[in-house]
Amino acid sequence: MKERIEALEPEKNLIVARVIGGDLMKEFKNFFLTIQAIPKQRGPGSVVKCHLKYERIDKKVADPEDILVLFVNASRDMDKMLSSEF
């Protein structure tokens, strides 16, 4: 997968990437991934939100649930690593 950063807002802990190449583009005309880390109001850490915005090439193309599963698994792994004591 090849992507390009469309927006980067450090003050909002936000990044928007646009997929511009790879297998994903065989099924989607446009595909954007937005990730934002929002600091928790109480206690340490952040809540990470992921938003997918896409346009299918054909109505028969399924929703990209695989991408969400990948993101959830990666988030869990990062959480385990960041919350472990060094």
From TrEMBL:
InterPro entries listed in its UniProt record: Bet_v_I/MLP, MLP-like_ligand-binding, START-like_dom_sf
Alphabetized Gene3D superfamilies for the sequence: 3.30.530.20
Pfam families per UniProt: Bet_v_1
Domain of life: Eukaryota
Residue stretches making up the Bet v I/Major latex protein domain: 1-85
Source species taxonomy: Eukaryota, Viridiplantae, Streptophyta, Embryophyta, Tracheophyta
Listed name of the protein: Bet v I/Major latex protein domain-containing protein
GO biological process: defense response
